[in-house]
Amino acid sequence: MTVTKNPAIEADPDELLGTDVIAAEMGVCTETVRRRIRNNELRAVKLGGEFRVRRRWVNEYIDSSLVVA
């Protein structure tokens, strides 16, 4: 039996991602990601005029947004 690796688990948590990558992974538009950054809901740094977010911060944001039904 072959076990496939989940790339999200293998990913570097300190990797800096652009808003376009985050939006695609979360299934939202880039403006939604930027709005969450501006509202201090999602941590980010600004490099060269563009927001960058560590993968770890994206995971923390998602974990803090979980809703238990």
Short description:
This protein has a single domain (12-64), classed as Multidrug-efflux Transporter Regulator, Chain: A, Domain 2. Helix content is 45%, strand content 16%.
CATH class: Mainly Alpha
Helix content: 40-55%
Strand percentage lies at: 15-25%
The main β sheet shows up as: 3 strands, antiparallel
Mean pLDDT: 89
Question: What is the terminal separation in angstroms?
Answer: 35 Å
Give the radius of gyration.
13 Å
Oligomer: single chain
- Shape type: globular
Query: How are the strands ordered across the major sheet?
Result: 1-3-2
Question: By helix and strand content, what is the structural category?
Answer: alpha+beta
- Tell how many strands the DSSP assignment holds: 3
What is the count of helical runs? 4
Quickly count the domains: 1
- CATH architecture tag: Orthogonal Bundle
Q: Can you write the helix and strand succession as a string? A: HEHHEEH
The low-pLDDT segments are none
Q: If you consult CATH, what is the topology? A: Multidrug-efflux Transporter Regulator, Chain: A, Domain 2
GO molecular function: DNA binding
Protein name: DNA binding domain, excisionase family
Organism: Mycobacteroides abscessus subsp. abscessus
Pfam family, one: HTH_17
List its traits.
alpha+beta; globular; 45% helix; three-stranded antiparallel beta sheet; 69 residues; Multidrug-efflux Transporter Regulator, Chain: A, Domain 2
